[in-house]
Design goal:
- The complex is a heterodimer of chains A (115) and B (117).
- Chain A is 0% helix and 52% strand.
- By secondary structure, chain A is an all-beta fold.
- In chain A, strands 2, 5, 6, 10, 11 and 12 form a 6-stranded mixed β-sheet that branches. A 4-stranded antiparallel β-sheet of chain A has the order 3-9-8-7, with no helix packed on it. In chain A, strands 1-4 form a two-stranded antiparallel sheet.
- Chain B has 117 residues and is mainly β.
- Helices cover 0% and strands 51% of the residues of chain B.
- Chain B is built from no helices and 11 strands.
- In chain B, strand 4 (32-38) and strand 5 form a beta hairpin.
- Classes of the chains: A mainly beta (115), B mainly beta (117).
- Chain A binds chain B through residues 32, 34, 36, 41-46, 49, 51, 90, 94, 96, 98-108, and chain B through 6, 32, 34, 42-44, 46, 49, 93, 95, 97, 100-111, 113.
């Protein structure tokens, strides 16, 4: 069965410092991984995705994520956090083996960047 | 990029009434649309998957007679919450993808906040 875990409900980081939002996944086949961001009272916005190729994926707003197959992780990173990055971040996975088109989401991590 | 809109963005209704939420893909044809519900402090929960011209596939535990989904065209899907109750109050989000191969990115709408009094 597919599942996604975001072990941290809340991450606080000072502006200008690097940030990491953790995500681990479980699928029966090869994963198709996503990060989405949700700003208050708004829908989700796509940040980046990994399906194959380089393990380091670059996305929107300076974010990147590193796919680690042995650790089944897909942590979201940014070298220098901005106050405007404060939002709710969701990791999601689709199992390519099942052919299902729906996403399985983690519970979300609230990122707060402190000025 | 692909844009998905939802209407209305916010709706307040009385208990027992029905509410329709529209999800539109503005610049692409959405073969598949998904409806999610977001609970406070919880993840997004997939409610149903709809393919244009066919009946929606509901997730376990979702009442299909209560949450009516219609995907009448390649750019429009509607979710109707029938006989709404306060426990139906939530944030409903739709997403759309161009194909059904499992490799397309889903594009999300801005969400609709439903409050049932």
């Amino acid at each position: 069965a597919q599942s996604v875990a975001q072990p941290e409900d809340q991450v606080n980081v000072a502006e200008g410092n690097p940030l990491t939002v953790k995500c681990t996944y479980s699928v029966s086949g090869n994963p198709y991984l996503f990060w989405y961001v949700q700003y208050p009272n708004r829908g989700l916005q796509f940040l980046l995705t990994y399906i194959t190729g380089d393990n380091l994926v670059k996305g929107s707003y300076g974010f990147e994520a590193e796919f680690n197959k042995s650790q089944t992780s897909f942590h979201l990173k940014k070298p220098s956090a901005l106050v405007s990055d404060s939002a709710l971040y969701f990791c999601a996975v689709r199992d390519l083996q099942t052919g299902a088109n729906n996403l399985f989401f983690g519970t979300g991590t609230r990122l707060t960047v402190i000025p | 990029g692909a844009v998905v809109s939802q209407h209305p963005s916010r709706v307040i209704c009385k208990s027992g009434t029905s509410v329709k939420i529209e999800c539109r893909s503005l610049d692409f044809q959405a073969t598949t649309m998904f409806w999610y519900r977001q609970f406070p402090k919880k993840s997004l929960m997939l409610m149903a998957t709809s393919n244009e011209g066919s009946k929606a596939t509901y997730e376990q535990g979702v009442e299909k007679d209560k949450f009516l989904i219609n995907h009448a065209s390649l750019t429009l899907s509607t979710l109707t919450v029938t006989s709404a109750h306060p426990e139906d109050s939530s944030f409903y989000i739709c997403s759309a993808s161009e194909g059904a191969s499992g490799q397309e990115t889903q594009y999300f709408g801005p969400g609709t906040r439903l409050l049932v009094l």
